[in-house]
């Protein structure tokens, strides 16, 4: 397939096309002098129209990637990368990876994947959670880190758009100095991205669409689903075939989730019965927004922190290690692959293969949240879940049951607060006759599931999470 990188702006693309048109017209002029004026004009216009249509298609589309540094041989799946300009001036350029379904891309669901943070690159999802490639676990030796195929990719049954957002995360960039953004602004931008992406890929406009993410995207996905749903009723925009959404260990209402860390810690035997009893008595369920006059509660919370500060908050069973500085992370650390992915993405041959615009960003950082001006202006996404339930969208909410950051009890609590009846009560779900977690389904088409032994993201048990997802997305009971 012919692959020409997409031009940096629509305005520049148009300018380039006009320049091509003028050049063709000049070169053609001597040959058409002998033709009558009417015929000359007709033939020239037809020819230019064909050229413009041909060039506009390839200038505006993404670029096909058949080989990636670190992976031996051609890629065993179809990968496209590209940019979509956002807002009127298109100064914001969202970078995406699009991988077609290995089954039936023409009819299989289309999902858009958003990582959390905010500010984490979607390569975290692609390489660590649900993509067809992963980094080989080996000590970095200065060459391009090796990539291997996975057995748990969600692309076995779905088309996936992995999106770097907000601008400043991954390879997304801004042509002007980055301005402060927010949850609500990102919802608008991602919605715009989807509309433009589907206009450039009309062959996927009828595929069922699901919005998917984890962690902080729990604040983005529900209002995005609402925005897409409302947008489908606005004049002149082609409707998006939205069917539902999926969230893993989502932030939903941070006060609820913080307060459930105490009962979670007690249930995991991280604090004593006596401390838990005293905390309940003197803090009365409010452990992290304590009245300064309640000195007894403050002292007890401090005791809780002494017991849990050295626990890996994303997975209580995995050793805690310092992953804040990936340049000096130990190969023995569970999160050493975070260093490898940064080495891979900062390699010039990788950027060239991915068709990243040269000079668009400096150092690629897996989690660049601290460098992105951002306002957390959605404090509670529960009302959006309620609205999406009323509109009939199906959803899967899952929790790794060893995540103390977003405890599964907190997720259960806000789901129950929606006040929908249970249609399939609490039961284990199985893989190879072994319990892989527990699940419950409600009358609003919402399924809750735990992943036994899982953590804050799917990266801890990608195989089990993939099986759960494949069953749900194809309409099977877990």
From TrEMBL:
SUPFAM superfamilies: alpha/beta-Hydrolases. InterPro entries: AB_hydrolase_fold, Peptidase_S10. Pfam families: Peptidase_S10 (PF00450). Belongs to the peptidase S10 family. This is Serine carboxypeptidase-like 9 isoform X1. The gene is LOC104751937.
């Amino acid at each position: 397939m012919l692959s020409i990188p997409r031009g940096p702006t629509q305005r520049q693309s148009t300018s380039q096309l006009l320049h091509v048109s003028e050049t063709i017209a000049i070169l053609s002029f001597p040959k058409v002098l002998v033709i009558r004026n009417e015929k000359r004009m007709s033939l020239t216009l037809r020819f230019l129209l064909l050229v413009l249509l041909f060039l506009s298609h390839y200038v505006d589309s993404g670029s096909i990637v058949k080989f990636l540094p670190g992976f031996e041989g051609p890629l065993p799946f179809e990968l496209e990368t590209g940019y979509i300009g956002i807002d009127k001036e298109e100064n914001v350029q969202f970078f995406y990876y699009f991988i077609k379904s290995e089954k039936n891309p023409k009819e299989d669901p289309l999902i858009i994947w958003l990582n959390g943070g905010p500010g984490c690159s979607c390569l975290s999802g692609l390489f660590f959670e649900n993509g067809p490639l992963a980094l080989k676990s080996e000590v970095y030796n200065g060459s391009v880190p090796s990539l291997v195929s996975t057995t748990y990719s969600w692309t076995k049954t779905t088309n996936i758009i992995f999106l770097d957002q907000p601008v400043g995360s991954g390879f997304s960039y801004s042509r002007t100095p980055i301005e402060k953004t927010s949850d609500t602004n990102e919802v608008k931008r991602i919605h715009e991205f989807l509309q433009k992406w589907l206009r450039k890929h009309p062959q996927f406009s009828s595929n069922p669409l699901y919005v998917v993410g984890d962690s902080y995207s729990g604040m983005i996905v529900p209002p995005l689903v609402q925005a897409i749903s409302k947008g489908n009723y606005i004049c002149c925009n082609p409707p998006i075939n939205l069917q539902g959404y999926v969230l893993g260990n989502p932030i939903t209402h941070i006060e609820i989730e913080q307060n459930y860390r105490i009962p979670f810690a007690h249930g995991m035997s991280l604090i004593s019965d006596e401390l838990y009893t005293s905390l309940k008595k003197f803090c009365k369920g409010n452990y992290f927004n304590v009245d300064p006059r309640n000195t007894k509660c403050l002292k007890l919370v401090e005791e809780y922190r002494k017991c849990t500060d050295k626990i890996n908050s994303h997975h209580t069973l995995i050793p805690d290690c310092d992953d804040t500085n990936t340049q000096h992370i130990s190969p023995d650390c569970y999160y050493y692959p975070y260093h490898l992915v940064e080495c891979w993405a900062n390699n010039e041959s990788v950027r060239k293969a991915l068709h990243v615009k040269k000079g668009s960003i400096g150092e690629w950082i897996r989690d660049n949240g601290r460098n992105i001006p951002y306002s957390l202006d959605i404090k509670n996404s529960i009302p959006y879940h309620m609205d999406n339930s009323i509109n009939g969208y199906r959803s899967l909410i899952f929790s790794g049951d060893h995540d103390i950051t977003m405890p599964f009890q907190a997720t259960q609590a806000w789901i129950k607060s929606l006040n929908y009846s249970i249609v399939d009560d609490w039961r284990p779900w199985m893989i190879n006759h072994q319990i892989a977690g527990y699940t419950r389904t409600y009358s609003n088409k919402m399924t809750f599931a735990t992943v036994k032994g899982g953590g804050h993201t799917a990266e801890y048990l990608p195989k089990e999470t993939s099986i759960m997802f494949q069953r749900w997305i194809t309409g099977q009971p877990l």
